[in-house]
């Protein structure tokens, strides 16, 4: 019996199985479409996606009490003894001219920040309730004595701790992190000002006296206002020559990488099914060697994996308008991934045939595929997870497949992805060699 006839027979058997086709082709198409739409904000597919970050600002301080306390400190505090009357009046007038509370809110109202974030002022209890109900993405808490400590930091040669707290919702982690970075940028600017002020007053005092140093504080305050309001800009920057990946692109790849594993599990059942139906025995009686049967099984899984990949690539290209990148590299990846899946499938076939039951194929289908998909990044991009997950993803065939396809979409060159291609082909070869060794040592069990 010719090998091509055996392969053709096995492929037809898979293609005529409507239930199996629904699992390996229809289901990933539905999932890639749903996930692509629902997670577009996570990938920043549109300019407006980040701009929808909503924040509640809580003011735990009392403006009047803080200003009164600052004025009292300037008149009767420990620093009052070292300041002459002229300098004291000058510093108090700076406090009157520059409202440090406005510096923060003018920062939030600046063009760069408004592109990303809108805010409302709430009391603490209401803000936390809004966060719990996911009406907002984060709460920013300005601490007690914020006005007093800020005046002290900016006008006198000391530094008090001003800790602005950001509370994020676990379901809005990325948006909450955006808020955290923005507030961190504000705090860093203010800290830099304090350092500038300390260096300035120290140097002037060393060359002249403290009164002369205080005369320069007003100039520094003007610089601070300009720096906070105007110099904070946020831009999306991509590496030169590289493209960003959209949610549709990522999940088209991720679902395909996961569901081609089902071709291996279903192909791995076929030999035992034929043995149960006496087809396997008839082939052996007809003189078909076991090696030819195994080659046929590998070829069938290889072809099904290729057809599965090509159907999903065509669907996503035509219906979802996904750009897969260099067509030559895409076809090379389809072939390389199918080699890995074919090798994995023949390994499952061998174990299943020798065991005489479907337990291993069932465990692979119901548990191992989900685990490989998880560590490979089919559910969540591994780049957003801890660093060790990225290393772990190389142990998953789907993880390596995702890295190659997304690399092609980002305009990566073949040489940059050569090691990943080698992993796929080696995976297939290793499983084939292991299967051959098992068959030779356990031939009596078949």
UniProtKB/TrEMBL annotation:
GO cellular component term of the entry, any:
plasma membrane
Q: Where is the chain membrane-spanning?
A: 20-39, 250-272, 293-315, 327-348, 360-380, 421-439
Query: What are the GO MF terms of this UniProt record?
Result: ABC-type transporter activity
InterPro entries annotated for this entry?
Answer: ABC-2_transporter_component (IPR051449), ABC2_TM (IPR013525)
Does the record bear Nuclease in its keywords?
no
Q: Kindly give the membrane topology term recorded for this protein.
A: Multi-pass membrane protein
Q: Where in the cell is it found?
A: Cell membrane
State the UniProt keywords alphabetically: Cell membrane, Membrane, Transmembrane, Transmembrane helix
Per the record, the domain of life is: Bacteria
Positions the record marks as coiled coil are none
Q: Which residues form the ABC-2 type transporter transmembrane domain?
A: 18-437
Q: Is Cell membrane a UniProt keyword of this protein? A: yes
Write the protein's name. Answer: Transport permease YfiM
Q: Which organism is it from?
A: Vallitalea longa
UniProt gene name = yfiM
């Amino acid at each position: 019996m010719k090998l091509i006839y055996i392969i053709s027979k096995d492929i037809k058997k898979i293609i005529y199985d409507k239930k199996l086709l629904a699992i390996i082709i229809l289901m990933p198409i539905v999932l890639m479409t749903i996930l692509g739409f629902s997670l577009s904000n996570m990938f920043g597919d549109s300019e407006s996606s980040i701009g929808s970050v909503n924040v509640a600002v809580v003011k735990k301080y009392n403006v009047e009490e803080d200003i009164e306390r600052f004025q009292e400190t300037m008149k009767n505090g420990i620093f009052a003894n070292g300041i002459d009357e002229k300098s004291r009046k000058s510093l108090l007038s700076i406090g009157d001219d520059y409202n440090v509370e406005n510096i923060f809110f003018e920062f939030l109202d600046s063009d760069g920040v408004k592109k990303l974030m809108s805010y409302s002022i709430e009391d603490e209890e209401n803000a936390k309730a809004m966060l719990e109900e996911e009406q907002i993405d984060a709460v920013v808490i300005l601490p007690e004595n914020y006005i007093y400590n800020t005046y002290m930091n900016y006008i006198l040669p000391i530094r008090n701790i001003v800790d602005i707290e950001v509370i994020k919702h676990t379901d809005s982690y990325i948006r909450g992190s955006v808020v955290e970075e923005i507030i961190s940028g504000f705090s860093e600017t203010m800290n830099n000002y304090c350092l500038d002020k300390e260096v300035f007053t120290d140097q002037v005092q060393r060359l002249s006296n403290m009164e002369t140093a205080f005369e320069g504080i007003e100039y520094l305050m003007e610089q601070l206002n300009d720096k906070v309001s105007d110099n904070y800009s946020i831009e999306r920057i991509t590496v030169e020559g590289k493209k960003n990946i959209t949610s549709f692109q990522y999940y088209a790849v991720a679902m395909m990488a996961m569901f081609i594993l089902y071709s291996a599990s279903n192909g791995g059942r076929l030999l035992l099914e034929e043995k149960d139906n006496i087809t396997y025995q008839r082939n052996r009686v007809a003189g078909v060697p076991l090696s030819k049967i195994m080659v046929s099984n590998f070829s069938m899984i290889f072809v099904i994996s290729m057809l599965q990949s090509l159907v999903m690539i065509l669907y996503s290209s035509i219906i979802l308008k996904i750009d897969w990148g260099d067509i030559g590299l895409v076809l090379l990846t389809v072939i390389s991934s199918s080699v890995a899946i074919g090798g994995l499938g023949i390994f499952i076939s061998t174990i299943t045939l020798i065991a005489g039951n479907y337990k291993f194929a069932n465990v692979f289908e119901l548990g191992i595929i989900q685990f490989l998909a998880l560590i490979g990044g089919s559910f969540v991009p591994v780049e957003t997870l801890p660093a060790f997950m990225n290393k772990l993803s190389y142990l998953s065939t789907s993880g390596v497949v995702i890295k190659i396809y997304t690399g092609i979409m980002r305009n990566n060159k073949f040489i940059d992805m050569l090691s990943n291609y080698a992993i796929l082909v080696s995976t297939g070869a290793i499983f084939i060699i292991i299967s051959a060794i098992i068959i030779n040592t356990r031939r009596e069990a078949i």
